[in-house]
Amino acid sequence: MTTLGLELPTDPRWVDIARMNLGDILIDHAFCEQKAASSCISLIVQFPEHEKLVEVLTPVVAEEWGHFQRVLKELRKRNIPLGKPRKDEYVNQLLLVLRKPGDRNEQLMEKLLLNALIEARSAERFKLLSENLTDEYLQKFYRELMISEAGHYRNFIELAEEYNPKEKVRKRWKELLETEAAIMKTLEVRADRFH
């Protein structure tokens, strides 16, 4: 077991590749933050009747957008243009395993657990960057983000349990952790991808 219950740690080669290709990692990271904010907005738009969800995720939207702005600032400091978004194979493969049940609360659980998985993997990678980069500012930056993403991970799990029986959420979470580990084994370690 690794950070936040993930079953497979990141390939150790990733952090070395990330260090040598920091510009590409920052670009992909920026898009990840943008997608995280969009995903929370989408949940609020799709499930507005769930007051607790709206209350919890509204500040998360602001936080994720703030992270996006901070990564943009890092890119500008380095004269690196944002460019166009890249295909996120990791998230696309996770989306394929989501169930599409009829019950609204089950649909919500699937979406919340997907977000929790992405936040858990992001937190793990932020931890690796905070411990392995030589740039002191970026070490601190990624440590802050690791703590923030771990908090978001907990938000998503707790919200899933708010609207579904805990046993059901835990069973599905275990299945998704196993699937995520299997997906991680198939993905190439790339210099231009955060996940």
From TrEMBL:
Pfam families: MiaE
Alphabetized InterPro entries for the sequence: Ferritin-like, Ferritin-like_SF, tRNA-Hydrxlase_MiaE
An example Gene Ontology biological process: tRNA modification
Molecular function terms, GO-annotated: tRNA 2-(methylsulfanyl)-N(6)-isopentenyladenosine(37) hydroxylase activity
Domain of life of the native organism: Bacteria
Designated name of the protein: tRNA-(Ms[2]io[6]A)-hydroxylase
Organism: Larkinella humicola
